[in-house]
Amino acid sequence: MRNEMTLSFVAIEENEALARMAMTCFITPLDPTLEEISEFKTIVSEAVTNAIIHGYDCDGTSMVTIRALIDGNKVSMTVEDQGNGIFDVEQAMEPMFTTKPLMERSGMGFTIMESFSDSLSVDSSIGNGTVVRFEKMFSPVTEASRMR
């Protein structure tokens, strides 16, 4: 199976749930397990939250764009903002690093995304935004997997 979609929305915190649910609906034809759904929703949530909070400082006017592709049992996805950019991507991907400690941000977003995806990359440019790319493989659909 092959399918693709693009979703753009205003960078407000309420739209994180929209992105999470839209992307969950998009992968439904793959018949994912509950664990796969949970991991996928977490990756989407973390990437979108980073774009809204860190990329745009919750400005409420800028746009976040998600592009997703299903090819067989693999989902490839990007979450893109045109915001602040990340000064040091390597440092930002370190566990517990946050630029928003006063907002009680844990600094675990990239670590969580990396642990739940099969591949993760981040491209960023100061003043031009950030693109988070990830891939996730889903279990082939079998009668046994439907029983889980």
Automatic annotation (TrEMBL):
Alphabetical list of Gene3D superfamilies matching this protein: Histidine kinase-like ATPase, C-terminal domain
Keyword check for Nucleotide-binding: yes
SMART domains: HATPase_c (SM00387)
InterPro entries associated with the record: Anti-sigma-factor_SerPK (IPR050267), Anti-sigma_F (IPR010194), HATPase_C_sf (IPR036890), HATPase_dom (IPR003594)
Function text: Binds to sigma F and blocks its ability to form an RNA polymerase holoenzyme (E-sigma F). Phosphorylates SpoIIAA on a serine residue. This phosphorylation may enable SpoIIAA to act as an anti-anti-sigma factor that counteracts SpoIIAB and thus releases sigma F from inhibition.
Catalytic activity: L-threonyl-[protein] + ATP = O-phospho-L-threonyl-[protein] + ADP + H(+); L-seryl-[protein] + ATP = O-phospho-L-seryl-[protein] + ADP + H(+)
An example Gene Ontology molecular-function term: sigma factor antagonist activity
Ranges for domain Histidine kinase/HSP90-like ATPase: 35-140
EC number(s) per entry: 2.7.11.1
GO biological process: asexual sporulation; negative regulation of sporulation resulting in formation of a cellular spore; sporulation resulting in formation of a cellular spore
Family, as annotated: Belongs to the anti-sigma-factor family.
Keywords linked to the UniProt accession: ATP-binding, Kinase, Nucleotide-binding, Serine/threonine-protein kinase, Sporulation, Transferase
Residues annotated as signal peptide: none
Species per Swiss-Prot/TrEMBL record: Sporosarcina luteola
Record HAMAP family: Anti_sigma_F (MF_00637)
Protein name: Anti-sigma F factor
PANTHER family: ANTI-SIGMA-F FACTOR RSBW (PTHR35526:SF3), ANTI-SIGMA-F FACTOR RSBW-RELATED (PTHR35526)
